């Protein structure tokens, strides 16, 4: 699949608590094979799936079996430990969307794993439509529970349309342009780019040349250092090493790596019921200590 990793980047690790934004597609499934991500673990974060086109089947070790569809918000909390799989459905012709992570603050990093689903009501205005999937924007507020203040929304602008957004000045924001052409104040944003706006912005005007699809994220500066490695967000090198070792221990029976996820040994990360794909072993740790991001 075609994936553009827009966050983290060399000079920007977080936008609020958002610590990871993968922007993918559109990709024809007949050529790429689609998405087939076997069971794998997470700690210390929440995952956000937001699709533009396609459909993905989600299964996790809390017993949740859900479909990810365009315009529907899915938030999975890893907390102290969860495992899940993501597989595009046979009827999917093209996959296109964003996969994002939210770092959990220190006081919530070990919460119980869980899953929330929300279908935001579309908001319509002159030349634009919006769906607010987390936080508050344009007079709408999502009911989804988060552990730090957050904002997440999809905006659709018609050709030559303009939209004024009133922003929380204590937030920093990221504006990702999926397609079309976009001006943000004095800045021009190209498709696939993520524009960073620091705190202090109370209002911003978005102007589309060609019809634009935009994802807006935001939150107050996170204020904590985190370690990111593979699928884990931790606070210390030792915490990440321990999580890796526990996942690896679950994948072996009598010293042999299992080839069917239903054979995974129950443990910290649980077992993904109904998924037979071979679980994904963790890569080797690097030969140096992990460095924090801030």
TrEMBL record:
<protein>
    <submittedName>
        <fullName>Pirin family protein</fullName>
    </submittedName>
</protein>
<dbReference type="InterPro" id="IPR003829">
    <property type="entry name" value="Pirin_N_dom"/>
</dbReference>
<dbReference type="Pfam" id="PF05726">
    <property type="entry name" value="Pirin_C"/>
</dbReference>
<dbReference type="GO" id="GO:0046872">
    <property type="term" value="F:metal ion binding"/>
</dbReference>
<feature type="binding site">
    <location>
        <position position="42"/>
    </location>
    <ligand>
        <name>Fe cation</name>
    </ligand>
</feature>
<feature type="binding site">
    <location>
        <position position="40"/>
    </location>
    <ligand>
        <name>Fe cation</name>
    </ligand>
</feature>
<dbReference type="InterPro" id="IPR011051">
    <property type="entry name" value="RmlC_Cupin_sf"/>
</dbReference>
<dbReference type="InterPro" id="IPR012093">
    <property type="entry name" value="Pirin"/>
</dbReference>
<dbReference type="Pfam" id="PF02678">
    <property type="entry name" value="Pirin"/>
</dbReference>
<keyword id="KW-0408">Iron</keyword>
<feature type="binding site">
    <location>
        <position position="86"/>
    </location>
    <ligand>
        <name>Fe cation</name>
    </ligand>
</feature>
<dbReference type="InterPro" id="IPR014710">
    <property type="entry name" value="RmlC-like_jellyroll"/>
</dbReference>
<feature type="binding site">
    <location>
        <position position="84"/>
    </location>
    <ligand>
        <name>Fe cation</name>
    </ligand>
</feature>
<comment type="similarity">
    <text>Belongs to the pirin family.</text>
</comment>
<feature type="domain" description="Pirin N-terminal">
    <location>
        <begin position="3"/>
        <end position="102"/>
    </location>
</feature>
<dbReference type="InterPro" id="IPR008778">
    <property type="entry name" value="Pirin_C_dom"/>
</dbReference>
<keyword id="KW-0479">Metal-binding</keyword>
<feature type="domain" description="Pirin C-terminal">
    <location>
        <begin position="154"/>
        <end position="249"/>
    </location>
</feature>
């Amino acid at each position: 699949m075609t994936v553009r990793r827009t966050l983290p980047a060399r000079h920007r690790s977080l936008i609020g608590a958002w610590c990871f934004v993968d922007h993918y597609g559109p990709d024809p499934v007949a050529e790429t094979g689609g998405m087939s991500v076997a069971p794998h673990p997470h700690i210390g974060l929440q995952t956000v799936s937001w699709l533009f086109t396609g459909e993905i089947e989600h299964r996790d070790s809390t017993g949740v079996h859900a479909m990810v569809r365009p315009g529907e918000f899915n938030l999975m909390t890893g907390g102290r430990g969860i495992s899940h799989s993501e597989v595009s459905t046979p009827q999917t012709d093209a996959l296109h969307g964003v996969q994002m992570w939210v770092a959990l603050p220190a006081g919530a990093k070990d919460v119980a794993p869980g899953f929330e689903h929300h279908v935001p009501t579309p908001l319509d205005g002159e030349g634009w439509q919006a769906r607010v999937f987390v936080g508050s924007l344009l007079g709408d507020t999502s009911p989804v529970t988060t552990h730090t203040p957050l904002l997440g929304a999809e905006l659709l602008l018609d050709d030559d349309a303009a939209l004024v957004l009133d922003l929380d000045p204590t937030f920093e924001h990221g504006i990702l342009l999926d397609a079309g052409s976009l001006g943000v104040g004095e800045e021009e944003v190209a498709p696939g780019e993520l524009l960073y706006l620091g705190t202090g912005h109370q209002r911003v005007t978005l102007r589309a040349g060609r019809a634009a699809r935009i994802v807006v994220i935001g939150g107050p500066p996170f204020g904590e250092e985190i370690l990111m490695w593979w699928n884990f967000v931790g606070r210390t090198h030792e915490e990440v090493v321990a999580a890796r070792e526990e996942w690896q221990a679950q994948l072996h029976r009598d010293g042999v790596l299992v080839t069917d996820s239903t054979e995974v040994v129950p443990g910290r990360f649980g077992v993904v019921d109904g998924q037979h794909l071979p679980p994904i072993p963790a890569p080797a740790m690097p030969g140096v200590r992990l460095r924090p991001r801030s």
